[in-house]
Design goal:
The chain is α/β, with parallel strands linked by helices and 329 residues long. The protein has a single domain, classed as TIM Barrel, CATH 3.20.20.70. 28% of the residues lie in helices and 18% in strands. α2 runs parallel beside α3 and α3 runs parallel beside α5. The longest helix is centred in the first third of the chain and has 13 residues.
Length: 329
């Protein structure tokens, strides 16, 4: 049964849900998590598969067409391909963001379960620098997982995400550009955002997408692709036609104006912006017997209050209490 679409107080229709299935991760990336990790949620605090399925079915009735499953690292969630098979019939597009460590093991099962798109996080193509950023000596395994996934035509286009940190990513720009020209992947650089658990972020650490674009363009000329509505990435094609590369610039070029995204954390908290300071609890009403109509009203009230924009560049900006891994990447 279709319900009226979700519309926020600024007139934006919501069609995209980022859904975290776990806060746990097998990497310890410097821009996200301390070397010793974080306190994990207790198992009972995390939404069960059936609870996730019910909420996604309701969100689909409310006009959500695209769902991205995130973490933490979603592939560490036990029996994760089964959850994918439960959700894929409910939406038009079911995507997964992963660090790729378990992708060689799970790629076939995830594709067969109905995952339609994949984003794989790789911050360096050099083994020692990959280790420096992730604190895991795992680059060969991640690249093997990426290669395994690429064997499935239905998994394409595959996107490879690299967080752009000043003092580190400058050396990665051209190797990643060559990688994008030689492989069937779209490389995307994402500006470092203030969502690190160590809370050491500063604007000076942000290597902007424009700086990276200019560095690559000087060697491999780029031509802009038209921006799709609600898109987070500015995508460019190489002028000679060999591949694409993208830049996600939430700090230097915010794309809040037509944002159509909401987020659900692994413990069932609805967030209307990545940088929200407030959350709406869906787990408590879900577990206390709320009807779909009652849940719908809670969701609508929260979505109506969706922020017009994030305030990263404003004086007095307050970083959310949760880090990226606890919110859902």
């Amino acid at each position: 049964m279709a319900r009226a679409p979700l519309i926020d107080g600024h007139g934006r229709t919501i069609g995209d849900l980022r859904l975290s299935v776990t806060d746990r991760c097998n990497f310890r990336c410097q821009y996200c998590m301390p070397a010793e990790g974080l306190p994990w949620l207790d198992r009972e605090e995390v939404l069960h598969f059936e609870e996730i399925e019910r909420l996604v079915a309701l969100f689909a009735e409310l006009g959500i067409r695209d769902v991205r499953l995130t973490g933490g690292e979603p592939l560490v969630r036990r029996d994760f391909p089964r959850l994918v098979s439960m959700l894929s019939p409910l939406v038009d597009d079911l995507a997964i963001t992963t660090n790729g460590f378990l992708l060689e093991r799970d790629a076939e099962a995830l594709v067969r379960a109905g995952a339609t798109r994949f984003n794989v996080s790789i911050d360096s193509l050099q083994r020692d620098r990959f280790f420096e950023m992730t604190r895991r000596d795992a680059l060969p395994r991640v690249l093997k997982g990426l290669e395994t996934l690429a064997a499935f035509p239905e998994a394409h286009p595959i996107k490879v995400n690299a967080v752009a940190v000043r003092g580190f990513t400058e050396q990665e720009a051209l190797p990643f550009a060559r990688f994008a020209r030689e492989h069937p992947y779209q490389i995307r650089f994402i500006e470092f955002m203030p969502l690190d658990a160590d809370r050491t972020w500063s604007p000076e650490q942000v290597l902007t997408g424009e700086e990276l674009r200019a560095a690559i363009h000087a060697v491999y000329p780029l031509e802009p692709e038209p921006r799709e509505a609600h898109a987070t990435a500015r995508v460019y094609r190489f002028a000679d036609g060999q591949g694409h590369i993208g830049f996600i610039n939430p700090v230097s070029e915010p794309f809040c104006g037509d944002c159509n995204r909401i987020r659900l954390t692994a413990d069932g908290k609805l967030r209307t912006c990545l940088f929200s300071l407030n959350e709406t609890d869906l787990r408590a009403p879900l577990r206390s017997g709320a009807t779909d109509d009652e849940l719908e009203q809670v969701i609508r009230d929260a979505v109506w209050r969706k922020e017009l924009k994030h305030h990263v560049n404003d004086p007095g900006f307050i970083q959310p209490a949760r880090s990226m891994s606890a919110i859902g990447g």
